Amino acid sequence: MAKLICLLLLWQSLPAPAQEASAADSLDSQVKRPRTAMLMDKSLEVGQKFEQFFNGHNPKTATWLGFIPGLGQIYNKKYWKIPIVYAGFAVTGYFALTNRNEYRKFADAYVCKLAEDPGNPETECDNPLAKKYPAESLKEFRDYYRRNMELSFVIMGAWYILQILDATVDAHLYDWEVSDDLTLQLRPLINIYGLSTQQESVPEYGRKSINGLSISLRF
Asked: Phi and psi for 190 in degrees, rounded to 5?
């Protein structure tokens, strides 16, 4: 009888390690599942951000990308504007550099001309522009090219800001839907007796005619 009791106790004690192992596995799975879920949520969030960046049109994103000329237009898929943007920079840059070079030439000639001493032949300036023009003319040319140079750089800066604003406005209006039924009609308006109710008491022969233009917008 004692042996039977010992065998029963031994049989009951055998499943305990398996139960402990299963409990440990369940605990590990409970610990690992939240981490996996967090990684999946993070990847979905990153994927949504990439999708929103490439497919959506956020004006703030277009503005930041506009700081690199042409990139805002690419973001808005207005590729035909890219040559216009760079053509504006090319033209203003050409005039800015040309006027800068001319300004430096006449500035050097003017300084060389002022250093001349009529009583000392050794101080005669060898600059071709100084020999060709007097000091007053050299000063006028110098100031002229300096103004043009500064104006060219100002226009270049304005063009830079303008292309940023263009990218921002395009991003705002990218999803703007315009119906094909949108029409704008202009018609002449002829009112013989006027539009004011104050003229109702005035005889017809004393009333003034009011003419104008009627504008109607249908959408």
From this structure: -120, 115
